[in-house]
Amino acid sequence: MHVSIEQLLADARLGVERVDVSDLSNEIAAGALVIDIRPLEQRQRDGSLTGALVIERNVLEWRLAPSSQSRILDLDGDQRVILVCNEGYSSSLAAATLRQLGLRRATDLVGGYQALIAFGHPTVSGEPAP
After folding, report:
1. Which of 45, 88, 106, 127 has the most crowded CB, counting CB atoms within 10 A?
2. Does the predicted model carry a pTM greater than 0.85?
3. Strand order in the sheet with 81-84
4. How far apart are CA 92 and CA 8, in angstroms?
5. Mean pLDDT for the chain overall
6. What are the domain boundaries of the chain?
7. What's domain 5-125's superfamily in CATH?
8. What is residue 121's predicted lDDT score, i.e. its pLDDT?
9. Can you tell me whether residue 81 is helix, strand or coil?
10. CA-CA distances (angstroms) from residue 64 to 43, 51, 68, 107?
11. How far is CA 118 from the centre of its chain?
């Protein structure tokens, strides 16, 4: 039995409080860790997210999973982690995976980086990422 990508996405978001762009500054002030999972090409094209830790999607679980020997941070399950992708789709799937790995408060940004640009969010830099 196969599921559609729409169903997979809906399942990933089920019961999760996603972050709206208008709430991101408050989340950061409350100690949330913001992670930009966009690939280099998108960061170079669209700019960077000031203050975000950059961990590309393809290595995310290995860098954050509490049980991974390749983790770069010691996070506990209660740390608020907000993932940002380009439009808020792959970040939802990635956050669901992080929750399965023990980061219970992992979530993502509704609309992704493009929503931040449209909102004029102060943490968005028009400068391409190095």
Report:
1. 106
2. yes
3. 53-54, 33-36, 81-84, 106-108
4. 10
5. 92
6. 5-125
7. Rhodanese-like domain (3.40.250.10)
8. 77
9. strand
10. 21, 17, 7, 13
11. 18
